[in-house]
Amino acid sequence: MNRFELIQSGQWPKYDLKVTLKPCFRCNHNCWFCSEYDNRTHMWSKDECDVVLDKLQELPVNKKKIFFYLYGGEPTLSKHWEYLHYRLVEMFKDRELFIQTQTNMSLTEQRLDRFLEKINNVKESSHTIDICSSYHLDKQKVDDFIKKMDICNNYNSLGLCFFSTEIPKEDQFLSEFSMIAAKYPSKIKLKFTVLDRQEYITNPDLKHLYEDDYLLGEDGGRYIEYRYFMRKYPELVNYLESGWNFRVDNKIKNYVDIKNEQIHTKFKYMKCQCGTKGIVIDHNLKVYHCNDDYYNRINISDLHDINFEKYLRKDVRCLNRECWDGLDFTKYR
C-alpha cells in the first residue's frame, strides 16, 4: 500500500484543520462491550475552558476551514459544553467552522433545544453545528431518542446516528433500528460492535458462533458482529456510511471493509497528514495529533508548551500499530 485517503463527499467536511476537544472523558453509559472510558477522570473547569480557548486563538491564520470535534467520553456531561460553542463561534467569525459533537444523546430535550436555539442565533452563516449521535440498546427509550433527533432536525443540526449492533439482542436491535430508519433513513448508519475484550469471546450467547470459521475470521472473532449481520441481513449494506469510503491505492473500500480486512493495522511508518491537519486537546490539557497517540503514549505534550505554527509544520511518520482515530487523514509512503 502506497496511499490511503478518504474519498471526499458532501457527507464529510473539508477542512484545513481538525481540532478534537475533549472537555470530559467520562461516560454515563456502561455498555457491556466497552471499557474505554474512565468515569473518575478530570473534567475541564470554566477556567480551563478559557485556557484552551485562549490557546486556540493562536491557530495559524491560513487554517481557514476548521473542524471542531467535541468528543469524549460523553462531552455533554461537561456543564461547559454550550459555553465552548458560544466562544468558538465568537472567536472565529471570519472562518468556516464545522462544529460537531459526538454524543449518546443522554442530555435532556430541554437542554438540547435551549442550546440549539441560542447557538443558531449567534453563529455566522459560515458556521455549521452538527449533532452526531450514538445509539446503544437499553440506555434510553427509542421514542425519546427520536424526539431529540427531531429537535436537532428542526434546527438543521441533525448529524448522523451510529447504531451499535448487539448479537445477543438481535431482535431488539432490528426493531429499534427500524424505528429510527423509518424516520431518518439517510441519517442512521450501522456501527458494528468490536469485541475488544477477550472475555467476551466466551460469552454464552456468542460461544456457538465461534464454531463457524467464517464468523471467527482471522481476527479471533473481533469483528464477528460485522460478519454475522452482513451475512444474515445483506440489505443492511444500505446503512453503511458511504461518506467513509476510502481509496486504497487503486481500490475503493468502505470503513467496515477497512476494519474487517484489518487494513487499519498496516499504516505503521507511513507518513500521515495528521501532522499538519490534526490536534487533540484532552481532558488533562494534553496535546497530540490523534487519539491513537494518546492510547499508545506517543508524542504527548502539555498545552502550554505548544506553538501551533511549529506543531503543524510537517506530516508525521505514524508509529501506531493500529489506526482508529485518524482514518480521515491521508497516509502515504
Based on the model shown, name its key terms.
globular; alpha/beta; 333 residues; nine-stranded mixed sheet; six-stranded antiparallel sheet; TIM Barrel; single chain; 15 strands
CATH class term of the domain at 14-191 and 275-315 = Alpha Beta
Unreliable stretches, pLDDT < 50, 5 or more residues?
Answer: none
Which topology of the domain at 14-191 and 275-315 does CATH recognise? TIM Barrel
Query: What fraction strand?
Result: 15-25%
β-strand number = 15
In short:
With 333 residues, this protein is an alpha/beta fold.
Structure commentary:
- With 333 residues, this protein is of the alpha/beta class.
- The chain has a domain at 14-191 and 275-315: TIM Barrel (Alpha-Beta Barrel).
- It has 11 helices and 15 strands.
- The protein has helices at residues 46-56, 81-91, 109-122, 142-154, 170-183, 213-216, 224-232, 255-260, 274-277, 291-295, 308-311; strands at 3-6, 17-21, 65-70, 96-103, 127-135, 158-164, 188-191, 245-248, 251-254, 271-272, 278-281, 286-288, 301-302, 316-317, 331-332.
- The protein has a 9-stranded mixed beta sheet. It has a 6-stranded antiparallel beta sheet with strand order 9-8-1-15-10-14.
- Helix 3 (109-122) packs parallel to helix 4 (142-154).
- The longest helix has 14 residues, at 109-122.
- The model has no long low-confidence stretch (mean pLDDT 94).
